[in-house]
Specification:
The complex is a heterodimer. In chain A, about 30% of the residues lie in helices and about 20% in strands. Chain A is of the alpha+beta class. Chain A has 3 domains: about 200 residues, Aldehyde Oxidoreductase, domain 3 (Alpha-Beta Complex); about 325 residues, Aldehyde oxidase/xanthine dehydrogenase, molybdopterin binding domain (Aldehyde Oxidoreductase, domain 4, 2-Layer Sandwich), CATH 3.30.365; about 150 residues, Aldehyde oxidase/xanthine dehydrogenase, molybdopterin binding domain (Aldehyde Oxidoreductase, domain 4, 2-Layer Sandwich). The chains are: A alpha+beta, B alpha+beta. Chains A and B meet through α1 and α18 of A and α2, α3, α4 and α5 of B.
């Protein structure tokens, strides 16, 4: 292990610019001649637009242009596409209603884009937008997905999606499940709602479109996790601009968590408008605008049943879920409650028969798509709550019932009944490590001590895994993905021996400029100050799929390793020539090429220079230069997971729940930088605790977004959270050369059920068997005081 | 339009503003100091924290017109003239107190004020002080560690 190599907690290279205020975020970029766009958004959840009059707005001071959906449609602009085709139970395709960047004749959610006002200043654009006159015919709205399926519910897309149904999908073996339930000793049931969340990355979304009339080149600067994907979707399907004339540049991006994956309307609007005006068009969301336009997360209603034998072995699981898509299909919305959810319902258990039904439904709310974990938090919450319920009904210890059903450590590769095959894992070790670190054994004494102080303590556990490192393209394609899911890398060695890596991955907080450099440093034996990681600009980088689904090291890192292998292979041939030896006798170690058994050697730097000044060089067999590409398509998903334990203390007078201790022991495969892994898990756990206790996106029955700003949406602050203890246990991924599994989302996946299991444990003497998230003070207080009232009667 | 004269990072500045122009807009749009960020519109997230006359303040909630004669320090003005980072900046780097970097300028400015105001702050006091600085990436664990280390380093440097 070198000083900057794999396994070292190297301090981040990118920090200097962020700490000194020299980051380049999209709203930091000024363009000569720039104009500012303000999007006029619907204040109604559902309405027909009878007419729009923009004449007064157009005449307002500083206004350059005002465009509506009619203008875009007349110019042949296409709708925003969905990237994953899910099929119904009968094999027919899902419904894909039109999704225009600016609405044509109907608004379908509060926040829906009606028009764009472009002016010389932001203030002038906002002022002018108030002069747009719209004649609305209000329509009834529906916000809950189960209500939307009822007969007589308001229809969000009319005939384009009858009954508001997008698809009715299934996975698993219904007959085997029914047979198992018929023989069950006990059936544990749960009804739950996985609450709707707003990702709220701290940087609001922004997009700047630019057009150069001299070259005909378009540029889009955007807060994206995947610039090539945006270039493809926007260029091919929406604006019909060839890739060779379209550059998409995602510079420093202030957090994503999934919300910056999608191709959003504003990206198409500013790019198209820049072409029309031949001037840059800048747009940046206000935070309250983000609340009603960034894709939301979660929002699943589920009913689940677990069949057990008399020893507490799981015989079968059946799940029925209704998933809210919102008013339109966002880019990956359709695969979140299907292929990223149902396939996780075996969890870490040997349940032999599983059957899942999922209905995806349109409502008059903001579109829903992936948010940190994307389907896996929903699956894990359902499973880990249901297992706790089953333990209680069987009179079994919560930990023992889990251990009894764990996949044994010698059972890998393990084929689940829901499509996935796990490569490696050791659930016993992470459980044991976590219990020790959390002092599980000492808890009852702490509960008793708290009771003396008038407080209610509870402890909760979640043993889980997830599937990430997305994904093998052929499997994804067979399941309906409309894209490949490989990753690209170029290793460009410079004549003086420094290296530039062009990666299709994108760093928006994950620290790739450091961790990827560590991989290069370890392989080539050069310091990380000699390595530059370049990402985010489609003009520089071969086609990559970007960063989400905890794929960057597993897929992006492997692409770099493969390109490095090609570089080392070529470098060995050059070394062999220089050292007058056979290439089979050349060993490369610690940055030196040595003839085995001798002290004849050349440094990496000498080889690099020779490649570019090929005077003593095998030109008949080898081209000059030292630069290699690789595209890596993963062979399987990766399966990190582990054990999370939450200890909570509830104040019965206020209902406030404090997490007094949180322990996470995760298996993320090989750890490249332990400091970064810890940070990723801590951040994920904070979001999971946020979901469990604080955060909730609330609509009223008329579709008004009640939680429309940080005034009403409870973001976790520093004094809401404890210190978060993180440890890792490693079983290597068997199918990528780094052995990495990914760590970006595990924190948000394992933690919510650990917290709610703890809350239920704290309240068990009050007759609580389940509580939906968030376990707010009002909810908790009501339960405690309801029980007290009953006791007094 | 009103004219305002103030000092920013030690340099005298004179700008023409509207009555409604916020300090953060002057910094980002007129002075090119884009290190101070806008993360919300309800004065809660703290990405815009700067120092005004030595105390931390939210630049999104100050009208430029009310700052005649004020001395403003932004994140760009915190490192030494030789480019060496401030001990609090070093502490954030050393303790992985940032990930995406967007909340970081406001977080560092807030932390420096805390270290001056309450050099021996307990973990609880640090977490309470940070109620006005929201981070979505780190879960605050390493931010607290960074502030403890940065505070100690600032004390030692005196």
């Amino acid at each position: 292990m070198g000083a900057d190599g794999i396994g070292v907690a190297v301090r981040r290279k990118e920090d200097v610019r962020f700490l000194t205020g020299r980051g380049t975020y999209t709203d930091d970029i000024a363009r000569p001649g720039q104009t500012y766009a303000h999007i006029l958004r619907s204040g109604q959840a559902h309405a027909r637009i009878r007419s729009i009059d923009v004449s007064k707005a157009k005449a307002a001071p500083g206004v350059v242009a005002v465009f509506t959906g009619a203008d875009m449609a007349a110019d042949g602009v296409g709708g925003l596409p969905c990237g994953w085709l899910v099929k119904n139970k009968d094999g027919s395709p899902m419904k894909e209603p039109a999704h225009p960047p600016l609405v044509v004749d109907r608004v379908r959610h509060v926040g829906d884009q009606i028009a764009v006002v472009i002016a010389e200043t932001r203030a002038q654009a906002k002022d002018a937008a108030e002069l747009v006159e719209i004649d609305f015919e209000p329509l009834p709205a529906v916000v809950d997905s189960k209500d939307a399926l009822k007969t007589g519910a308001p229809q969000v897309h009319g005939d384009a999606a009858p009954g508001n149904l997008c698809y009715d999908w299934e996975l698993g073996d219904k007959a085997a499940v029914d047979a198992a339930f018929a023989k069950a000793h006990k059936v544990a049931k749960i009804d739950l709602f996985n609450n709707r969340l707003i990702p709220n990355a701290m940087e609001p979304r922004a997009a700047t479109g630019d057009f150069d009339p001299a070259s005909g080149d378009y540029t889009l600067y955007t807060t994206s996790q995947n610039p090539h994907v945006i270039r493809l979707l926007m260029g091919a399907f929406v604006l019909h601009i060839p890739e060779s004339k379209l550059r998409v540049y995602a510079p420093d991006v202030g957090g994503g968590f999934g919300s910056k994956i999608y191709h959003y309307a504003e990206e198409a609007i500013v790019t198209w408008a820049a072409g029309k005006l031949k001037r840059p068009v800048r747009w940046t969301a206000d935070r309250s605008e983000s609340f009603m336009s960034d894709a939301h997360g979660r929002d699943h209603h589920s009913h689940a049943e677990l069949a057990l034998d008399k020893d507490g072995k799981f015989l079968a699981l059946r799940v029925d879920t209704t998933a809210n898509m919102g008013a339109y299909l966002s880019t990956f919305a359709s695969c979140i409650p299907t292929y990223l959810y149902a396939t996780l319902l075996a969890g870490v258990y040997t349940t032999p028969a599983i059957y899942v039904e999922v209905k995806a439904v349109f409502t008059n709310t903001v579109p829903v798509d992936a948010y940190r974990g994307a389907g896996r938090p929903e699956a894990t919450f359902l499973l880990e709550r249901l297992v706790d319920v089953a333990a209680r009904e069987m009179g079994m210890d919560r930990v023992e019932i889990r251990r009894r059903n764990f996949i044994p450590t010698n059972a890998f590769p393990y084929q689940t009944p829901v499509a996935l095959q796990y490569d490696s894992g050791d659930y016993f070790s992470t459980l044991e490590q976590a219990q020790k670190a959390a002092d599980w054994a000492g808890f009852e004494a702490r509960r008793a001590e708290a009771r003396k102080r008038g407080k209610l303590r509870g402890i909760g556990i979640s043993t889980y895994l997830e599937a990430c490192g997305i994904a093998p393209s052929n499997i994804a394609g067979a399941l309906g993905a409309r894209a490949g899911l490989y990753e690209a890398a170029t290793v460009r060695v410079h004549p003086t021996g420094t290296v530039t890596i062009l990666t299709g991955s994108h760093s928006h907080g994950q620290g790739h400029e450091t961790t990827f450099a560590q991989v290069v440093s370890e392989t080539l034996g050069i310091g990380i100050d000699q390595v530059e990681i370049v990402h985010g600009d489609t003009n520089k980088i071969p086609f990559g799929m970007g960063t989400y689904g905890s794929r960057s090291l597993a897929v992006g890192g492997t692409a770099i390793v493969k390109a490095l292998d090609k570089v080392v292979s070529k470098a060995k041939k050059i070394a062999a020539h220089l050292l007058e030896a056979s290439v089979n006798d050349i060993e490369f170690k610690d940055g030196k090429f040595t003839v085995v058994g001798t002290d004849k050697s050349k440094t990496f730097g000498e080889i690099a220079l020779t490649a570019y000044v090929p005077h003593n060089y095998p030109l008949e067999e080898l081209e000059p230069g030292l630069e290699e590409n690789a595209f890596y398509d993963p062979k399987n998903f990766t399966f990190p997971g582990g054990c999370h334990i939450a200890e909570v203390e509830i104040d019965p007078d206020t209902g406030v729940t404090k997490v007094v201790k949180f322990t996470a022991v995760d298996d993320v495969g090989r750890v490249i930088n332990p400091m970064i892994v810890e940070g990723q898990v801590q951040g994920g756990v904070a979001q999971g605790i946020g979901q469990a206790l604080l955060e909730n996106c609330v609509y009223d029955k008329d579709g008004q977004l009640i939680t429309g700003s940080y005034m009403d949406y409870a973001m976790p602050r520093a004094d809401d959270l404890p210190s978060i203890g993180v440890a890792t246990h490693t079983t290597l991924c068997t199918h990528n050369p780094l052995g990495v599994k990914g760590c970006g989302e595990v924190g948000a996946i394992g933690s919510p059920p650990a917290v709610i299991n703890a809350v239920v444990d704290a309240l068990k003497d009050h007759g609580v068997t389940h509580m939906d998230m968030p376990a707010s003070p009002q909810k908790v207080w009501s339960v405690i005081n309801g029980a007290h009232r009953k006791a007094a009667e | 339009m009103p004219q305002v004269s103030l000092t920013v990072n030690g340099r005298p500045v004179k700008v023409e503003v509207e009555g409604r122009t916020l300090l953060v807009q002057v910094l980002r749009e007129k002075l090119g100091l884009t290190g101070t960020h806008v993360g919300c519109d309800t004065s809660q997230c703290g990405a815009c924290v700067v120092h005004v006359d030595g105390k931390s303040a939210k630049a999104c909630t100050l009208l430029a017109a009310q700052l005649e004669g004020a001395s403003v320090t932004t994140i760009e003005g915190v490192a030494g003239a030789d480019g060496k980072m401030h001990p609090m900046q070093e502490a954030f780097r050393d303790n992985h107190g940032l990930q995406c970097g967007f909340c970081t300028p406001g977080m560092v400015m807030s932390a420096i004020d805390l270290a001056k105001t309450n050099p021996d702050a307990s973990e609880h006091e640090i977490r309470e002080w940070l109620e006005g600085n929201i981070c979505r990436c780190t879960g605050y664990h390493n931010i607290v560690k960074s502030i403890q280390a940065g505070s100690a380093a600032m004390r030692a440097a005196k």
